[in-house]
Amino acid sequence: MNRKLTNAVFKIFVWAAMAASFGILLFLISVLFWKGFGAISFDFLFTPSSNFGAEGGIVYQIVGSILLIVFATLIAFPLSLGFAIYKSEYVKSSYVQNITDTLIYGLNGIPSIIFGIFGLIFFVNLLNTGISWFVGSIILAIMILPTIILSTYQAINSIPDSFRENALALGLTKWQLITTTLLPRGLSGAFTGLLIGLSRAIGETAPIMFIATAFSGVTIPVGFFEPVSALPTHILALAQQATNPQALQNAWGTSLVLLLLVLIFSIAALWRRVKFSKIEY
Q1: Are residue 124 and residue 227 in the same domain, yes or no?
Q2: Considering its fold, how many domains does the chain have in total?
Q3: At what angle do helices 133-157 and 183-201 cross, to 10 degrees?
Q4: pLDDT at position 123, please?
Q5: What is the spatial distance between Cα 258 and Cα 185, in angstroms, rounded to a whole number?
Q6: What pLDDT is attached to residue 279?
Q7: Quick one: which of 166, 151, 169 has its CA closest to 88?
Q8: C-alpha to C-alpha distance for 153 and 250, rounded to whole angstroms
């Protein structure tokens, strides 16, 4: 009887926690849609901002955010694939495995503001790059590395050893085994991790605020070492003008656009994960 009562209480607690989490998420999304939908228009999405963002649209902020995450992808994705393959196929020592796990999980747990300060000290001050969107992409790439590495590693590690043994028995080299057998099956996990990482990176403010973005007066960059304007920092600038009704309306609209981009990446990652989970070995 006590066991049944304990199970019932635990089940109620789990369902209540799930309902509360879902309710909070639904409330936040509903508020953003309610407040921000009125600001969304063709002009808002495809015209530049003016008067420190209180007027005009967010076209340069959208372009800046996409530019940051595209180059972060180009930097992080091949590095993550290489590290995951090395960790899965070449590292045999449990001691080295523990060290790599510590490094990956430690990097994943670093607060985002620390990445921004590191970029400011190392790139902007020591290397004298100035405020640069490319530096921002490098920092965002470092941030999402652990997510992609872990997702790729789990995907590759889930492949049965019989695949490796059969491939080697057929005379394939280690490199051929990786490129023809492991990598095609590991890419699904890599893409899932990439999409999850990008859904985080595109909404980050602290890592890029000091090193990659300017709050106003920037357009589409023509070089690697120029600032951009991004959606998260634009929201921050508009929030400081909360007494201005037009600026506040634009802030809600920008927040809704950013939320929709995050939802797109998150839903795509979920779709990739569900599709990958149906693969049978």
Answers
A1: yes
A2: 2
A3: 140
A4: 93
A5: 31
A6: 56
A7: 151
A8: 41
- Same domain for 199 and 60, yes or no, is yes
The model's pTM: 0.88
Mean pLDDT for each 10-residue chunk of the chain (281 residues)? 79 92 91 88 88 85 93 93 89 88 91 92 91 94 93 86 83 84 81 86 88 85 90 89 85 91 84 65 50
Q: Are 60 and 218 spatial neighbours (Cβ–Cβ below 8 Å)?
A: yes
The b/e string for 86-117 (b: 16+ C-beta within 10 A; e otherwise) is ebbeeeeeeeeeeeeeeebeeeeeeebeebbe
Rg (alpha carbons) of the chain, rounded to whole number = 23
State which residues form the domain around 12: 1-39
| Helices 231-239 and 245-277, packing angle to 10 deg | 150
Q: Which of 149, 148, 154, 176 is nearest to 163 (CA)?
A: 176
Length of the chain: 281
H/E run at residue 209:
helix 206-209
Q: What is the pLDDT of residue 240?
A: 85
Q: What is the pLDDT of residue 122?
A: 93
Q: Could you tell me if 19 and 46 lie in one domain? A: no
SS3 50: strand
pLDDT at 280: 52
Q: What is the pLDDT of residue 277?
A: 59
